[in-house]
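Q: What does the predicted 3D structure of Dipeptidase look like?
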Amino acid sequence: MPYRALSLAAIAVCLAFPALAQDTSMPDDDGSVDAETQMARNLANAALDAAPVFDGHNDVPIQLRSRFDNQINDFDFEDTLATGEAHPQGRVMHTDLARLTEGKVGAQYWSVYVPTSISEPEAVQMTMEQIDVMKRLIARYPDSLSYAENADQVESAMANGKVASLLGMEGGHSIGSSLAVLRQMYALGARYMTITHSRNTPWADSATDEPEHGGLNDFGKDVIREMNRIGMLVDLSHVSEDAMMDTLDVAQAPVIFSHSGARAINGHARNVPDSVLARLPQNGGIVMVVGLPGFLNDDRRQWYATREAEIARQKSLYGGQPDVWETAILAWDEANPEPQTMISHMADHIDHIKAVAGVEYIGIGADYDGMPTGPVGMEDVSGYPALFTELARRGYSQVELELISNRNAIRVLREAEQYASRVADQPPIETLLPAGD
């Protein structure tokens, strides 16, 4: 891959920054920033101007369904700051065209997620509806968004100042345990599939469900082979460690983790263990680091578990008396505020993945509009420059920042396409899920 050469001035800036543990993205109280932060900000902006962010996971499509029932003819994606009115908790959407520009986003995988609580046939239909609504939204803004299905189209869109817009399926239930449906979803534009979501599929184990298959069963391994054959990226966010390992045993093209962190930094099952990170260079895949506080900040994860235990305790003590236990939880919340998650927590995950796998295997997949908020200073899609400023302060070079922002993601997409091209003469896999599975 051709990397941009750093100027001598940029190299000097990189060498000047020691690794810092504290969050450094916020200005001083008077609005000013110190010289070191300004230099880091300049380096980050230079990197993002050269290589705008290619984010692995954004949940705008499910927001369009849950808030507007996919009725978007009157939806204004230029500015979504008034969308809190359409949400039961008053949450404003994280994404709009203005903030994508501010965040220096150049490419986005839009997640056509559907819940795991519905049947597989319902999931197939609903996924198609989500593909439809996102394609319609992209088409409404041709000056800002450009539908893309391959790496060349991504690079062309970014060169023309548009956000390259690709589609990714979140959850293997969306194919109804059918390789024929998988192929048709690819034909409709889906360029990755997260092989599970929060529950197991009939052929793969989720990270957050009771193990059922020991990773992937035989049909699941053929799902991976067929995804490789047609050029669809295999996304291992949400899957069990055994399923990650089984996939790496089978995969002939790079995998992605569209929105995950490092389990060594935060022990959540949704994060990637070092055993998998160590294998990533051989596969060539990437971890696109998530922005969800509960996956980043282990203190936040521990706080949430303690709070859930307290809710269960209060319900056990005062079952049938919601006014009593709800009052007790309000008092607990006041005495035990949620730990803040900072940009530095997200940078810690990037540091760890770099140390174990290497900087060539890192991307960004924040999960905006699929979580309540991002870290402080990165609450929505406008916040990416603050993260890259923090990385610059920690000593990341412009080349490294560009690798993380989009060059690794483009490489992985292109290599998946190249593998599919090499095996184009192979017939489709026709395996059926055995009856009873």
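A (community wiki): The structure tokens above were generated from the sequence. The first strand starts at residue 53 and ends at 58. The CA atoms of residues 99 and 221 lie 40 Å apart.
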